[in-house]
Each structure stands twice: as C-alpha cells, then as structure tokens.
Amino acid sequence: MNDSAPDLAVRIARLEAEVRQLRDLADVQDVITRYSRALDWLDESALDAVFFDDAQIDYGFFRGSGKDFKPVLMQVERAAGRRWHFTSQVKIALHGDIAEVESYNLSVASPDASPGSETQVMHFYGYYLDTIARRGGRWGILQRKHLAIAATALRDVPMQGELASLNKIGYASTAHADFRALASEPPPAR
Predict the structure, then answer these.
(1) Residue 187: per-residue pLDDT
(2) Which pTM value belongs to this model?
(3) Number of structural domains found in the chain
C-alpha cells in the first residue's frame, strides 16, 4: 500500500501539468479569438486585452508598438461598413509563459454596411506569426507579424428567395442590438 502512494503522487503531478498545459493552450487560443471579435464588433476595450502596449507589431503598413497600433487598427476597421475576421489552423508551441503561434487568417471587408448592396467585398488572406506571453496571469500578444498571401474582390449580390429572410448584421459595433459582452474576456493588462 505504501508503494502506491508515490505512484499516485506522480500521476497527480502529471495530470496537473497536463491540465495546466491544456488551460494555457485554451487561453492562447482565446487571445486569437478575442482579436477577431474585437475588430468585428469595434470593441476597443476587448482589443486592449489582446495586445500588450509594448508589443512589437508589423503589418507592413504599420510597424510599431501595440499601444500605437490599436487606434490605427480601429480607424481602419471603422472605415469598413461590414467586416469579418476568421483565424484558423492555429498551431501553438508552449514554452512556459511564452507561446510561439502561427495561424491562418481570412478577413472580409465591404465599404457598404448593407448586405446585398452589390458593392465590392474585399477578401484578404494571410498568416499571423505571433509571440504570445503570459503577464500577471493574463495572456496577450507580445509580437505579431502579418504575412499577406493575396487580396481579392467579389461583388456582393442581393440574397433572393428563402435566403432573403436570413438575418443580416449590417454595421456591427458594441452599440448593435445583437452585441453581447461576454464575461469571460479578461481585463486589459498594461
């Protein structure tokens, strides 16, 4: 019976380490998700919880700190009538309080807020190369480089028939009737 106590302690320690790793992976993935959500809903407070102020950002059109990038990015997003950001195929390599992350992105933007307005909808494809760090118990982007693959424009067309009855969002912001403040979003860390 005494021989099983050390085995049990080792198994518990291993399980605790696995739970910690899974939690860290989920928290890092949540940073990526919060980024898209902050842009799509024009939620500046959520964006504050994505980038650390001293983060090093390189999007090509902008190179500088996270603090200086956030207002520039929000200005770009406010100029779009509709916007949608999608990030997938997220690969994370954890190294304690640092995560090296690579993900694929698709962003869609239209100058017109009305779906089916027959305007051009721009599609942007690329990669995010991130270093995400844990500071004060919160994960955030410490370094990001965006690599563009391509941009295309497609004509938006009116939805007809049964598709015409789909809910359409139009201009999204935190003032939109369907915006929900999700309690799981962490406070910003400076």
Answers:
(1) 53
(2) 0.88
(3) 1
